[in-house]
Amino acid sequence: MASSNSYKLRCSIPGHEMDVRGLATAVFPEGAFVSVSRDRTGRVWVPNSSPDRGFTEMHCMSGHSNFVSCVCIIAPSETYPRGLIATGGNDNNICVFTLDQPQPLFTLKGHKNTVCTLSSGKFGTLLSGSWDTTAKVWLNEKCMMTLQGHSAAVWAVIILPEQGLMLSGSADKTIKLWKAGRCEKTFTGHEDCVRGLAVISNTEFFSCSNDTSIRRWLVTGECVQVYYSHTNFIYSLAVFPNGQDFVSTGEDRTLRIWRNGECSQTIRLPAQSVWCCCILPNGDIAVGASDGIIRVFTESEDRMASVEDLQAFEDELSKATIDPKTGDLGDIKVEDLPGREHLNEPGNRDGQTRLIKDGQKVEAYQWSVSDGRWMKIGDVVGGSNQQTSKSVMYEGKEYDYVFTIDVNEGGPSMKLPYNVSEDPWLTAHNFLQKNDLSPMFLDQVANFIIENTKGHVVGPAQPAGGDPFTGGARYIPGSADDRPGFGADPFTGSVFQNVCSPASLLCPSQSFVLSSAAKLKELNGGAPQEHKLSEEILENLESLLLSVSGPNSSEPPLTIQQINLLWKASHWPDDIVFPVLDIMRLAVRHPQVNETLCGEAEGVQLCNHLLSLMRPEGRPANQMLALRTLCNCFSGRHGRALLMAQRETVLSRAADLATVCNKNIHVALATLVLNYAGCLHSQPDLEAKAQCLSVASRALETVQDREAVFRLLVALGTTVASDQTAKDLARSLGVNSQISKYSSVSDPAKVGECCQLILKELQ
Predict the structure, then answer these.
(1) Assuming Cys at both sites, which of 121, 312, 364, 455 could form a disulfide with 159, CB separation 3.0 to 4.6 Å?
(2) How confident is the model at residue 546 (pLDDT cuts 50, 70, 90)?
């Protein structure tokens, strides 16, 4: 098949009534792709055999109550051999469709604002990003994890081929790498919103930004290359199969093709915003823009549009109007521009722009290497003088408009700056976020901008007739329009096969009771006067210790006073509190202490106090004893209820201690995760199980002690046992490959045996 090594128009598809915001290559039929639009629909396009080398609409999907912002394909499975289509919208929902039904198969609800990016992974995993600043991991119609850490909208997400690794790019200018639900690394370098991400390989990826740059990163954190060519926001990226060359689109009205690290071709479009792109299996490029038209470009001469259609596309481009305020052309001084004779000189590179003066008119031309000529790309409306007279200064920047917005009657008014080249919906969103206003006002503010900027539109010139390239009804920014625990003996290696009673929960009791009391007295003797305990208090604590140290104790019943004194003493200074914590971790196993300290009123205070002792920079002895205390809280009904209610906070803080190099801390951490897994075994709380999987999986990366490893393996096995969705999530997180190294461990044998059982469960 002949190739010109230069992309030209294959066809234009005027299939949507408003902006085309997302494109994705379909698995089926061959050569097909999916588009989504502000017109609230998604459409599947298949290549046809007609002379125009175009595409035919095969399927139209509707289910969103507002604009559709993004789309991705969920890979085929046994249930859905043709794959599924997932779309995200401004209604905060994700709709999932089959290829033969116009209505959603199911809808995923959970985000609190626009879902603006989607990516799919193995085993049906779906990753979404939203203006609510979070990303979410979905599996089997359930939200399994919420990834929190960005401080602004999450504009881009991708799942890397290496199982369990996910990336998110945000308006906070950062990119975050997530593993098993936890942020492992933050990439900084972009100077404005990160708008797009694209996978290169297991170890590399691209990002693009409003700062007009594209960056190439290693997952280890290094930025290895920065690419410049765009002159305005860059919205999307797509990588060719060779993993090196790629394409990008943006607010400068262009599609750019990059080869060997250089921009080898610039294709300008007759639309201001080129929102999205995808690469088809045959190497053709599909792009979607703000004029509602999908355009497909090809380097195969066999598939290029006819000479007449190519000329029509060029004519339409030449009629476009370009506003200097978009920044695409730099500062323009009409009096300094050369005349038409300047076009007799050839350009230096593909995509180079040149402005010429024709009377009082300014025209923009672009150099085409493949054609060896200058192509007109539009008329420039307004020079620098007009720009200055029409601009309004606000916070040191020039804007076309600065509106005064009154949200609350009698309250302070707020300023909303706006340029006609901007998307009113994005401007409205940023305004609401900056001023901490409810997203409920989004439509109201955006419509206010549209209504008050009528007649000031940057975009293609409108012919009188319905030209097939213009899409007359398109959207243009600015135009109006008490439960069982884990299994049997936790040391048998088959723990997660048989569920039994909470008595099986691991509540360690080994302690040197007398030495704890003696150490307490010793430290009290040297304690600062304001922290010194009286003899009476010491006697009460010793009496309490004897009462809780064994079931056959002949000591008198505990008193509330003793328990209160224990609570008070636990607030000793960090450097001397450890003997009190040793008493407390034993005491919480006693039903009366468990009820008193873990009850509804006091429980949260206990939890917060123990978590404060578990700070990563804290003392290892306190960290270990606080973890053991939490483990022992599971021995009573009130303690279990408390820790289940505080699960997310407790496990998050505990997980940070996996990096502390201390065997005893690792065993205590593993025991805590195991106790949670036991309590969750018979519950349908998938998000809680996902956190258990995440914490256990991450801990296994650093923990070396075999007893701790064993307990973490038991926790994994308990979590996935009898729960197909939990098993699917474990597979998608790469648990199989992570733990396989333990399958051959023979010292102790229980580690290898337990690992083999889990691998069998996950087959």
Answers:
(1) 121
(2) confident
Q: Pick the closest to residue 631 from 621, 642, 620 (CA basis).
A: 642
Instruction: Tell me what pLDDT residue 458 has.
Output: 44
Rounded alpha-carbon distances, angstroms, from residue 743 to 134, 491, 702, 758: 36, 16, 17, 9
pLDDT of residue 508: 54
* C-alpha to C-alpha distances, 655 to 367, 691, 706, 729, nearest whole angstrom: 57, 10, 18, 19
CA-to-CA dists, residue 414 to 131, 265, 291, 405, 417, angstroms: 21, 43, 32, 5, 10
Query: CA–CA distance from 323 to each of 36, 93, 184, 362 (Å)?
Result: 28, 36, 43, 11
Half-sphere exposure of 438 (CA within 13 A, CB side): 5
Helix (H) or strand (E) holding 311: helix 307-318
Span 552-597, pLDDT tens digits: 545 567 888 888 889 988 898 888 888 889 889 889 999 999 999 9
Class of domain 392-453: alpha beta
Coil/strand/helix, residue 515: helix
- Distance between CA 20 and CA 23 in Å, rounded? 8
With 50 as the cut, is the pLDDT of residue 499 above it?
Answer: no
Evaluate whether the domain defined by 510-651 bears CATH number 3.30.230.30.
no
Can you identify the CATH homologous superfamily of domain 8-319? YVTN repeat-like/Quinoprotein amine dehydrogenase (2.130.10.10)
Q: How many helices (H) and strands (E) does the chain have?
A: 19, 36
Which pLDDT score is estimated for 217?
97
Sheet holding 135-139, edge to edge: 115-120, 126-130, 135-139, 142-147
The pLDDT of residue 513 is above 70: no
What is the structure's pLDDT at 272?
A: 85
Convert the pLDDT of each residue in 655-675 to its tens digit.
989 888 889 999 999 999 999
| Per-residue pLDDT at 122 | 83
Q: Could you tell me which of 592, 657, 595 has the C-alpha nearest to residue 626?
A: 657
Q: Average the pLDDT over 508-516 and give the result.
A: 47
DSSP 340: G
Kindly list the distances between the CA atom of residue 696 and the CA atoms of 89, 339, 484, 651, 652, in Å, as whole numbers in the listed order.
34, 70, 20, 10, 11
Yes or no: say if 161 and 202 are a contact pair by the CB < 8 Å rule: yes
User: Which backbone phi and psi does 288 adopt, to 5 degrees?
Assistant: -120, 145
Structural domain spans, the chain: 8-319, 322-380, 392-453, 510-651, 661-762
CA dihedral (126, 431, 433, 476) in degrees, to 10, reads -10
Asked if 625 and 586 count as a contact pair (C-beta separation under 8 A), the reply is no
The pLDDT confidence band at residue 412, using thresholds 50, 70 and 90, is low
